[in-house]
Amino acid sequence: MSLILKNDILYLHIPKTGGNWLTSIAESQGLVVGSVGHKHSTFDHVLRSVRIAYLLATRRLSKTPTVLCVVRNPLTWYESWFRYQTKRNWKTWGVNGHLTKWHVCSALNDLEHTDFMAFMKSVNASEPGFVTRMYGRYTQGSNATVLRNEHLAEDFVEFAARVKLPIDRTKVLSTGRIGESPKMDLHWDDAVLRETIENETAGFRAYGYALPETRD
Predict the structure, then answer these.
(1) What is the number of domains present in the chain?
(2) Which of 30, 183, 184, 198 is 20 to 30 A from 50 via CA?
């Protein structure tokens, strides 16, 4: 479920970006006052939710909440997704194109591969720039505050101070990662890496990541 936090904050959980850690922190710090939609609801999905009228009516959420999301480097997102799916025998996520059963990652359901580079070649062929588009489903039109996975605890502490969320700063900073994907040795082919970076260039730039250097 997308979480409604104190101080009129709506947290939208982008898959494989550290959302389980942030959810655990929000719950343990007593910040959660409600929820809406499913775990990975996008901003536009929340807006369509029949529960949003109830939330507005009960003043749990205003018409213009502070939207909070977490992103990560697009390349490590693909690595994390491949490790996660491989460990779970390529779990199916929703039904691609289905109005009610759709999931933000359902477009990747048919791209199952045992080899990481084969997977990425399929992504680049059929869903180029997938991560950039997925992030946009959460951030575009929502004026979201975007934290980055690579220094999530520090970013969240700074955000909490800015919006006056009551947290135990020391405990937040000392809480380790939760729900990380299994470890696997993954290697990028130079050509596939260059193509992926080109496809995700807008995402790198939009969320403040430097474009990686590649070999010609």
Answers:
(1) 1
(2) 30
